[in-house]
Specification:
Layout lengths: L1 H29 L9 H24 L14 H28 L6 H25 L2 H9 L10
């Protein structure tokens, strides 16, 4: 059931984007815009109509009440949060250190493509070192073990 809902959501999003883009073009043409010239008033009116249509969704979201929740949020030990913070700080500091260090070690490269490839390789290496640091602290493994007790399965929905 979840895959059907996900596919429907994705299809609706894509159809909405196509309709919004094409609808804006049709509205601009209706208000007097032409292919060869930009007419400010036509596009201003087009965006006013688009804002009014968006306003329906925004007003609905603001007017509807939240459903009542009958369950308490799960209590988690402070250690779970501490492990998360330590892991993120470790990964970010390794990322910054590697990025700064590799920038000084690697020679300057001439050419746009070569420079881009070198930066891409640097980014992948630095991201890998940050992820490796995160897993080497064991914070992910310990956090996954402790959070399983509070896991709510999708079968309940």
């Amino acid at each position: 059931m979840q895959s059907v809902l996900s596919a429907t959501y994705n299809a609706g999003y894509r159809i909405g984007m196509i309709v919004a883009g094409a609808g804006a073009l049709f509205l601009a043409e209706y208000f007097g815009s032409v292919k060869d010239a930009y007419i400010y008033e036509a596009w201003r009116n087009t965006y006013w109509v688009m804002a009014a249509v968006m306003g329906v969704g925004v007003a609905t979201t603001l007017m509807i009440r939240e459903p009542a929740v009958n369950r308490a949020p799960p209590e988690r030990p402070v250690g779970d949060y501490a492990r998360l913070v330590v892991g993120v700080v470790c990964a970010v500091s390794v990322f910054v250190a590697c990025f700064a260090g590799l920038g000084k070690l690697l020679p300057e490269v001439e050419g746009v493509l070569a420079g881009f490839l070198l930066e891409a390789i640097t980014l992948v290496g630095v991201a890998g070192s940050g992820i490796g640091c995160r897993y080497s602290t064991g914070a992910c493994r310990r956090g996954a073990k402790t959070s399983r007790r509070h896991h709510v399965g999708l079968s309940r929905f």
